[in-house]
Amino acid sequence: MSTHDVEETGMTERQALLDFPGAEALQAAGRVEPPSAATLARALAAVEEAAREESGRAPRRTAAADAVVTPFRGRRRVVALLAAVAVAAGITVTGATMGTAPAPAPAQSGTRARPASVFLDDVAEVAAARSAGAGTYWKVHTAPFNAYEYISRSMESTYLVPGRTFGGKAVRKGHFPGWRLGSKRVDWSGLDRLTTDPASLLRLIESTTKASADGDEDAATLGFVQAATLLANAPARPELRSGLFKALGRLKGVSVGGVVKDDAGRTGTELVFHGGVGITKVIIDPRTSTLLELSEPWRNEKDQRRATYLFAGLTDKIG
Description:
Blueprint: H1 3-9, H2 13-17, H3 23-29, H4 37-57, H5 72-88, H6 116-129, E1 137-143, E2 147-152, E3 156-160, E4 172-175, E5 179-181, E6 184-186, H7 188-193, H8 198-206, H9 219-233, H10 238-249, E7 254-261, E8 267-275, E9 278-285, E10 290-298, E11 300-315
Antiparallel strand pairs: 1-2, 1-11, 2-3, 3-4, 5-6, 7-8, 8-9, 9-10, 10-11
Helix pairs in contact: 4-5, 6-10, 8-10, 9-10
């Protein structure tokens, strides 16, 4: 801020920096809940756009000072947007922190676990904003067996594991039976017709019946696993994936764990379901809404079935 700005406005530099719409709310906000990834991305995009506009209007460098002098009034818009992002991101801001010296961070007495509904609603926003993509086949690559499966729109399946043969053939072909959700079994076209309403999807999940032949799984666990499987390895459109995340956030027995790594070393947030036969866990990357791994109990907690999803998406070719 220049001497001319001080003389013109009659304010100190600190007062001038805080002279923008929303400054009082910013100072009073303190520390707030973190925003969703989608909300923060939109806010940061607004700041970048404002900065570009102001940079385009700034005077050229002067030979004497060799510095760009930004008009005071022009800076107020960028500062106001930065302040809005600060409130959204949960940053504690006071009059002192808007000056030259940063204020010390308050001591943290511990972190509060986020409710599953809040976390999964944020993930749902990210899922809804993603592109549906295009392709002839739905491709899924899973570990620990390093298996690849390609499903056509006519529900024909091509399954292969590098280095392994099936009756002397490199691939195993067959008909894929479809994806289950509660009382429904749907094919690729059925996924496109499936409801995206979270409340209706929750009722479907909760309508799951005990279906395993030898009684390994309880109905509630099976419903959670079916929904997680749809999110992990089915060509569900963005609106359906968003609705499923919201539905799972309201399913009884679901809680959010900590930040963990899957078996491939990728970082994500653990979602836990407490069922009648043990604990089922999934790992989700909240930045992309990708479900990275599913670990479900089978007979007892010592005998787990784990699938790590290394890739799931559309492709135009097999191999």
